[in-house]
Amino acid sequence: MKQFAPDMYDRLKLLQTYRHVAIVGISADPYRPSHFVAIYLQAEGYNIILVNPRYAGQTILGKRVYASLTEAKEAGETIEVVDVFRKPEDVLPIAEEAIRIGAKVLWLQLGIRNDEAGRLAQEAGLIFVQNKCIKMEHARFFGGLHTVGLNTGVILSRALPRAEVLKPSAAELVR
Prior knowledge:
Blueprint: H1 8-17, E1 20-24, H2 33-43, E2 47-51, E3 59-60, E4 63-66, H3 69-74, E5 81-84, H4 91-101, E6 105-108, H5 115-123, E7 127-129, H6 134-142, H7 163-166, H8 170-174
Parallel strand pairs: 1-2, 1-5, 2-4, 5-6, 6-7
Antiparallel strand pairs: 3-4
């Protein structure tokens, strides 16, 4: 069986090759990691397909939200990568659905591991990545780590000022 985490060269190649990413578990809350990743991928030119039954039929980031991967596929969406923001125990049915719709990659976000889903996906011919953030991997390979912060609430296009500029004045320390 293949390794659960393709090496960095394989991850680079899949980020270069596949441009249609379904984000399963998208949140409308801009402070949630799924929303943050969706913004980043969209800004980097990826076609994002948003999936969450809670928001089905609504629009997030200018894109329709689907109840399931199957619904998105039936609506004509191309889905190559299934990026999962769900609890590990919820992943197996998502893996099965990713296989049914013909996805190429099943990607479980940072902190999410499910070896059974990985085995199933790999046996069906999917590339399987787990416990890695697709945004962080992309930014690492393509130089975007400074472009969008990680859960900071701050979106920047340039580096922050040097630390000494941010030191409080003596008057602020006395307060």
